[in-house]
UniProtKB/TrEMBL annotation:
A Gene Ontology biological process term: proteolysis
Source species, domain of life: Bacteria
Catalytic activity, reaction form: Release of signal peptides from bacterial membrane prolipoproteins. Hydrolyzes -Xaa-Yaa-Zaa-|-(S,diacylglyceryl)Cys-, in which Xaa is hydrophobic (preferably Leu), and Yaa (Ala or Ser) and Zaa (Gly or Ala) have small, neutral side chains
Active site per UniProt: D131, D149
GO cellular component: plasma membrane
Purpose: This protein specifically catalyzes the removal of signal peptides from prolipoproteins.
Biological source species: Acinetobacter stercoris
Name of the protein: Lipoprotein signal peptidase
Enzyme class: hydrolase
């Protein structure tokens, strides 16, 4: 008789990973809350100085992260909505299957998932993403972004750190256990 403890497969989830879904939900909540504040307290395209290199500037982004394809004519809304939906489902499955000793990789996935869903909510209900963080230096301006974009960026950085630095250590540990 097969041992249920040793089952492997696509739908094998670990309950300890609920905490990572919690990080995704927290990311979504903070993102939506800050977008609500920006939308209700800022005038569209009217910068409010915060620091010598930072303004709050309410903008509506119909493109992808950092305004990529924002002037493409409308088809990008459906593309990015579908892409975010598919990637989110894949990331939820990946996240729920993380081994207990992993920290950096599930944190990265949770942040990317939360950011993607935060922007997906805007895109589905508003037809655009609310951006309000505007960083600049003298006459050099970085495209406006939001908390979801920041979470996606931080998650991607963590994912790269995990891939290029931590994966090698996991492989070495696994090999030493097998010796």
């Amino acid at each position: 008789m097969p041992n249920p403890q040793n089952k492997k497969g696509l739908f094998q989830f670990y309950p300890h990973n609920i905490i990572w879904l919690g990080l995704s939900v927290l990311t979504i909540l903070v993102d939506q809350w800050t977008k609500y504040i920006a939308s209700t307290h800022l005038n569209y395209a009217d910068p409010v100085p915060v620091l010598p290199f930072l303004n709050w500037t309410l903008l509506h982004n119909t493109g992808a992260a950092f305004s990529f394809l924002s002037d493409a004519g409308g088809w990008q809304r459906y593309l990015f909505t579908g892409l975010a939906g598919i990637v989110s489902i894949v990331f939820i499955f990946w996240l729920m299957r993380m081994p207990k000793n992993s920290i950096v990789l599930p944190a990265a996935i949770a942040l990317i998932l939360g950011g993607a869903l935060g922007n997906l909510i805007d895109r589905m209900y508003l037809g655009y993403v609310v951006d309000f963080i505007h960083v600049f230096y003298q006459d050099k301006h970085f495209p406006a972004f939001n908390i979801a974009d920041s979470a996606i960026t931080l998650g991607t950085i963590l994912l790269l750190i995990d891939t290029f630095f931590l994966e090698k250590h996991r492989i070495q540990r696994a090999e030493s256990k097998n010796d």
